[in-house]
Amino acid sequence: MERKSNAAWERVYCAVKKIRAGRVLTYGQLARMAKLRGGAREAGHAMAASPRGQSIPWHRVVGAGGRLLIREPLASLQRRLLQSEKVIFSGHHVDMAACGYTFSKAQSRKQNGAKTPVPRKPAYRKRPTRD
DNA sequence: CATCTGACGACCG
DNA sequence: GCGGTCGCCAGAT
After folding, report:
1. What is the Cα–Cα distance from A63 to A128, expressed in whole angstroms?
2. Model-level pTM?
3. Strand A25-26 vs strand A93-94: parallel, antiparallel, or unpaired?
4. DSSP code for A107
5. CA nearest neighbour of A66 among A40, A100, A34
6. CB-strand contact A11/C, under 7 Å
């Protein structure tokens, strides 16, 4: 059953619910704005465990680069739903440049004035040396 | 308690 | 662009 993690996951669900139609979020960004310690992975767990029937637009959550990571059945459904949400698909991935929260360039500004969640501690650690 | 897996992200070759 | 590897953490067995 749900444990204390539920609290963190709830933040994820809350964030997902706030995603506007035609917009998509990545697990990484979602994890960062929810301040999940597990990083993108916990975001994925949260989504996987997301209660179906609470109006959670899970389909608006995609992987980095707008790629659909989930397996076929869900991916197919997700893609269909996203397209129905006016989300632009570029081949097999979502057009993050148009529907994603891109806080790298000023392009995100033209979106709707969404406050950039500004990235924080990356879950990954760069390899200092590999020698 | 030990171990694997996972709706991840990013880097490297 | 693709595949493999590393890192992080939580849940399941």
Report:
1. 26
2. 0.83
3. unpaired
4. G
5. A100
6. no
Q: Could you give the count of Cα atoms lying within 13 Å of A70 in the half-sphere of its Cβ? A: 19
Q: How far is the CA of A38 from the C1' of C9 (A)?
A: 4
Residues in chain A: 131
Q: Is the CB of A74 under 7 A from strand C?
A: no
Contact A62, A26 (CB under 8 A): yes
How would you write the pLDDT of chain A (131 residues) with one tens digit per residue?
A: 544 567 888 889 999 998 988 889 999 989 888 888 888 999 999 999 888 777 899 999 999 989 999 988 888 899 999 999 999 998 888 988 877 776 554 444 445 545 555 556 666 776 665 45
